[in-house]
Amino acid sequence: MVFIDGKLYSVNRDNKKIDVYDTKATPWAAGSQVEFSGFNGATDLTYDITTQKVYGCFIETDKTYSFGTLNLETGERTKIATLPQFFSAIAANSQGTIYGVGADLALYTFDKSTGSTTKVGDTGLATIDHWVPQSAEFDQDSNTLYYCYNTSNISIFANKTYPAYANFLLLKIQKPGLTSRDVFDACIRQGLMIRDCSSFECLDGEYIRFCIMHPEDNTRLLHILTSL
After folding, report:
1. Tens of pLDDT along 137-173?
2. CB of 211 within 8 A of CB of 184?
């Protein structure tokens, strides 16, 4: 699905049509349907405000996966590249960078011209076949990536980082009720040292700071963060 100017667009795999909903109406009103062909469906869509195009990860008729653009008015899909794996969550930030979470539950960026993907890092989520992210969206004002993850209970995760000027990363804790002290204690119990930033008077909210470590320690830290 993708949301643009008060309308929600959803690729319906059953009837091969793009369903359009007017979210400004109460209740939401189902509007026009646009037929599409040449592919079986889309795992997720995102609107890039810098190019004013809708990008998506698509399921091909031969059950492979591809990256491309979709014209929501005509249903025409332009294939850019075949993907090496299934991507079920993609989102574009305000700078036009497209991120996606793959079947391996790692975070990637997409090259919009070639469709090639570059791994950013592991999300720390459990790699279980049917537990895959379902959709993602950026809060353009805060540059925070939110994604919905299908576990036994539906969960929503948020990640926000800040520009680094040394070998440290500052992370704001967005989960209600979770404090920097909670995260600090959980890390210490696992032998990982991070900084509880509750004493930083210039910060409003819950923050932690940590340095870039060995890859295996970074993965351990991600697992701790996602388990809290």
Report:
1. 887 777 777 777 655 544 445 556 566 556 677 888 8
2. no
The alpha carbons of the chain give a radius of gyration, in whole angstroms, of 19
Q: Tell me the DSSP string of the chain.
A: -EEETTEEEEEETTTTEEEEEETTSSSPEEEEEEE--SSSEEEEEEEETTTTEEEEEEE-TTS-EEEEEE-TTT--EEEEEE-SS-EEEEEE-TTS-EEEEETT-EEEEE-TTT--EEEEEE-----BTTB-EEEEEEETTTTEEEEEEESSSEEEEEE-B---SSSEEEEE--STT--HHHHHHHHHHTT---EEGGG-TT--S-EEEEE---HHHHHHHHHHHHH-
Alpha-carbon gap, residue 130 to 160, rounded angstroms: 26
Q: Tell me how many degrees the CA angle 55-30-50 measures, rounded to the nearest 5.
A: 25
Contact 70, 51 (CB under 8 A): no
Structure tokens at 136: 């993602």
> Which of the four pLDDT bands, split at 50, 70 and 90, describes residue 50?
very high
